Amino acid sequence: MTAAPYNYSYIFKYIIIGDMGVGKSCLLHQFTEKKFMADCPHTIGVEFGTRIMEVNGQKVKLQIWDTAGQERFRAVTRSYYRGAAGALMVYDITRRSTYNHLSSWLTDARNLTNPNTVIILIGNKADLEAQRDVTYEEAKQFAEENGLLFLEASAKTGENVEEAFLEAAKRIYQNIQDGSLDLNAAESGVQHKPSVPQGGRLSSDTQPAKEGCSC
Amino acid sequence: MDQSVAIQETLATEEDCITSDRGHFETLVKAAVRTWHHKVAAFCFICVIVCACSVRLFIYTHRRMAITADDVSLEDIFPVSRHFEVVEVSSPDELAILGADTRIRVSFQEEVLEVSLPFGSHSRFFLGELNKAWSDVCKSSSHVPKFEWLHKHSKTTGGQAVIKQSLTPLGAKMTKLSKQTGLSQRLHTPDAVAHSPAHQGTRAGPEIAARAVQNEWERYGTCLGEGGAGREDRNDMVRSSSHTPANKAQMLSIPQFGLRDNLIRCELLKNEDQYTHLQDFSFFLATYNVNGQAPKESLAPWLSCSSSPPDVYCVGFQELDLSKEAFFFNDTPREPEWMRAVSEALHPDAKYALVKLVRLVGIMLMFYVKREHAGFISEVEAETVGTGIMGRMGNKGAVAIRFRFHNTDVCVVSSHLAAHIEEFERRNQDYRDICSRLQFRLLDPGCPPLAIMKHNVVLWLGDLNYRISDLDVDHVKNLITKKDFETLHNYDQLKRQMDEEAVFEGFVEGDIQFQPTYKYDTGSDDWDTSEKCRAPAWCDRILWRGKNIKQSTYQSHMTLKTSDHKPVSSLLQIGIKVVNEEAYKKKFEEIVRCIDKMENECIPSVTLSRRELHFQDVKYMEHQTESLTLFNDGQVPCQFEFIQKLDEPTYSKPWLTANPPKGFLAQGAQVDIDLEVFVNRSTAPDLNIGLEHIEDILVLHLERGKDYFLSVSGNYLASCYGTPISTLCQLREPIRDMPLPAVRALTKGGESPEGGDKPLGIPKEIWMMVDHLFRNAIKQEDLFQQPGLRSEFQEIRDYLDTGVPDSLPGSNHSVAEALLLFLESLPEPVVPYSFYQQCLDCYASATQSKKVISMLPQCHKNVFDYLAAFLRELLKNSDHNNLDVNILATIFAALLLRSPTKQDLAEKRKTQEFFQHFLVQDLS
User: Fold this and answer.
1) Hey, what domains does chain A have and what are their CATH numbers?
2) What is the ipTM of this complex?
3) CB pairs under 8 A between A and B
């Protein structure tokens, strides 16, 4: 009854997906550490990062799962899609093949997440304008056709990195606000209170805390 | 005071008083239908009563302290239903009493009642409970609460109570309901316009409330039934009370839950210097024992004596009312009288807001701030402690107000300690009781109650009642005449007790440069001339505790003659921690970032010596192990475990195991993990024909941390072990010499694809082993009973699979064991699973048994007959090899007649008896 709105906190689970070498881990690192990781080894597994952000005046904790991009791990990384509130689907603007594979990533994302999962398309390495292989316009069109948010970003310069995570968070928050995202649904990817990341079986996902909010 | 006991007594057993609050009516609007036996203002209790699923608001009036049910009388009942509203109303002089009592308007249809609730957490709690009850009612739109249980209250209260029962009497019709809805909407609309910030947009408080309402609606909006009022009509309703005057100050407070938030809070506190600076504010502290008198003269000479207007006023009174009524009922007309007198006497050059007034019988404390500072006052709470008769009553004791001014926590105490010159120990005890018993309950339920001494600044004023001892009256008066206050002060009990650290430890008092303030003949400046002729004393004192406090003045005010005491005042300059919001925001963000970083660094992490494990030339029943080292390079101990992937039953393929599969790793420690491949008869068949490969990805999971993928690869060398009899019969060459697809085709198709060579009668591998034994081991002692050597088995297996070396290696025992292992590895036993049941059915009959065997597929039948013949040969030499029918039947029945499911002991015996028919035949 007495808690003011700033007292509320949410946890949003994000996944980052996309081909190998598009800079998924660098985006995560830039976002959590505000630094560029120059020679980032390939992620063989699932990395994990967290950061608190303010979204529409609410403190939100983003819990970000950065997945391996290698094709041979595809079957395993699929286990991690479940219960994601947001998905960052990344391609490399200097490598068309990474863009061409988007539809397959999108299929996975759509099949393995819930209908309310917010997917944002990110064209990474926007600093390498000279080597551009995918135009902004075509990617924008792809995003629009598929109902995705879209940004070009650079994990190197930090350009639009913050924005990418924030834009997705805003959309998720908006979904909560307008009631289209049911917090009590098992796989909403949103929790109402801060808690430690869930461990255990990949298949058993984080259950959102059923906290009624009072005001 | 807890009135809930008295109120509960008036209720029926099934009714429950959830919460109640003390308030008072100020005005009654549109309540003409009822006659109240109290006029314009009356003290009341307002209670939330629950019976079954329905909720009422009961309004009680009371004549005295509510101790039993007789002390309260029920005045009114408001059903908490959809037509019920609670609205916070602002008074026209809202600014002048910012943070003061909360006025709410309770309305139900045309009934309207305004009640003032005391400022503080209790009222907030009360309104919260009321809100909750209301929300619950609205949520269950289908459920229309029945109010018939209320009828008995009209009797028990002697017809005083008017029960608003018209909404849903038994059997209410929908038509009636909607008619009433319309009525109530009409009636509410003018009010809504008048008080709705949405229309006026000027009052910050209600506007916030309206927003809160909006939120509430988003949550519960859909629950409201069709009969309910529309969304817009109710925006002005207070669903959340927004009393706290200082929204600005509140903005700076931090989320109050969780470990993380505590960490932030701690860090913020630790670094307070970096975002606050000290700024002096003037606090005017005043205390006056008025001896039960009503105000008769202006208090301005006392309260407006400073040249410039002080920032804060804390005005304490003692003996406000000495009447029995005040003592027993805590009810006194003196409170408003003195409040008015004080308000009128505050410094004329500034406007002040009364933030809080608290009174216990005759002890009162008022807290005013300059209007412009009101926004920086937050977390205001008030408490009282009685230390009088029985150590509990309110004739002596203290009242206190705590508040946060900018970033400094301040507590002001007005106390009246025990009287009489010899009772200084009692006074010390009162002080200690007040300190230990007076605890502020804070808004945040997670916070423990806050004691007086926990505040940055404690200001203590009042009639502390310490006297001048060890001097006779004349001597005292003489020193006073000479204005030798310094000498006199040495005989002051408070000074002595403080010097002995018996009381007011850590407190400071300024030099006393005024004559004792007690005891005068009322209306004069003459010392007490009554019989008792009390010695003058500095009863009335002002002390402080805390840093950055300087006293500007400390004086008594002789011109005031209303009481037998003189009032005292002190002007303090107190350094208050003022927040630089920009610096605060920066610091806050820095801390959050730092904690984020810490959190990310504390994510468990390990390094793996290798991520790719290759198993070269994996063979049947031959262990192969690859190791990797796990090193905990993180900042925390970690727990690791290989976990299943989605939709897989185990963490790895059945031919692979990790040892250990999970464990705990201290920081900086390491552990070797063995990954072991072992292909047995259940995994061999698919590997033999390339349906399955030595390939897997293991997920090594760290509790609360990262996951690591381990890639396992390798190749399997096909073997006759685990290959069906039918396939082996098609293979004239060792299996390893055959292309994999051909073997696969043979296994799948059964018969030879291109009608080339005629299939062999029995697999050559069986023939090789049996022939070897027949020639070399027919007389071997303990054949089939003594184990072979594992290394020799591997040589034999390789020989069978590759044809190298030229002849079958190994001892007789090893060959015998290799034969048994071969039979065991067959995916389809010699007697195929489909014949198993028939064998069981006819085990008793030799003829029947032979008939079943004659029906086996040709190659299986051949193998069966061949083995049986061989075993019969062995039995001929039982003198040498120590074998008998029983032993051989036991060993071979288990291999030849395998059950598709689990075999029980009886079945096992049947299979042995079945097989015995074939061993004894020649001997019979």
Assistant:
1) 5-191 (3.40.50.300)
2) 0.82
3) 113
Nearest-Cα residue of chain B relative to residue A196: B704
In 3D space, the residue among B609, B250, B201 whose CA is nearest the CA of residue B404 turns out to be: B250
Q: Which of residues 188-207 of B touch A (CB under 8 A)?
A: none
List where CATH 2.60.40.10 sits in chain B. 610-716
Domain with CATH 3.60.10.10 in chain B: 265-579
A7–B709 CB contact, under 8 Å: no
Binary contact (A201, B644; C-beta < 8 A) = yes
Residues contacting residue B553 through CB under 8 Å, at least 6 positions apart: B305, B306, B569, B570, B571
Contact check, Cβ <8 Å, B216/A215: yes
User: Is A37 touching B (CB cutoff 8 A)?
Assistant: no
The domain B265-579 is placed in CATH, from the list 3.40.50.10750, 3.60.10.10, 3.10.20.340, 1.10.12.10, at 3.60.10.10
The Cα–Cα gap between B797 and B788 comes to 13
Backbone dihedral angles phi then psi of residue B300, each to the nearest 5 degrees: -60, -40
**Which residue type is seen at B197?**
P
> Under an 8 A CB cutoff, do A1 and B127 touch?
yes
DSSP for A128-151 reads: -GGG--S-HHHHHHHHHHTT-EEE
- Whole-number Å distance between alpha carbons of B330 and B324: 9
CATH code of the domain made up of B759-920: 1.10.555.10
Residue ranges in B676-739 assigned as alpha helix (H): 684-688, 725-730
The reply to whether A75 touches chain B by the CB within 8 Å rule is: yes
- Residue B703 CB coordination number (10 Å): 17
Flag if A202 and B699 touch (Cβ within 8 Å): yes
State pLDDT tens for residues B161-184. 344 433 333 333 333 333 333 333
A51 touches chain B (CB under 8 A): yes
Instruction: Quick: pLDDT tens for B654-702.
Output: 999 999 999 999 999 999 999 999 999 999 999 999 899 999 999 999 9
Closest chain A residue to B214, measured at CA = A215
List the beta bridge partners of residue B657: B676
Strand ranges of the sheet holding B312-318, from the earlier edge strand across to the other edge: B352-360, B363-370, B312-318, B276-289, B568-579, B549-556
Q: Do A52 and B596 touch (CB under 8 A)?
A: yes
Cross-chain Cβ contact A202/B240 below 8 Å: no
Residues of chain A with pLDDT under 50: 1-8, 194-215
CATH (residue range B610-716): 2.60.40.10
The conformational region for residue B37 under phi > 0 = left, psi -120 to 50 = alpha, else beta, is alpha
Instruction: Check B132 against A79: CB less than 8 A apart.
Output: no
pLDDT of residue B555 exceeding 80: yes
Measured CA distances, B838 to B824, B834, B846, B888, B914 (Å): 21, 8, 13, 21, 11
**Which pLDDT score, from 0 to 100, does residue B51 have?**
62
User: Best interface-test mutation with A: which of B709, B710, B712 has the largest number of A CBs within 10 A?
Assistant: B709
Specify the CATH number of the domain B4-234. Answer: 2.30.29.110
Residue ranges matching CATH 2.30.29.110 in chain B: 4-234
Any idea how long chain A is?
Answer: 215
Dihedral sign, CA of B37, B41, B47, B48? Answer: positive
Residue-wise pLDDT tens digits, A34-52: 889 888 889 999 998 888 8
- Strand A86-92 and strand A9-18: the pairing is parallel
Q: Rounded to a whole number, what is the distance in Å from the CA of A139 to chain B's nearest CA?
A: 31
Do B125 and A1 make contact, defined as CB atoms within 8 angstroms?
yes
Residue B313: enclosing H or E segment and its boundaries?
strand B312-318
Q: Residues 88-147, chain A: which have Cβ within 8 Å of B?
A: none
Chain A environment of B239 (Cβ under 8 Å): 215
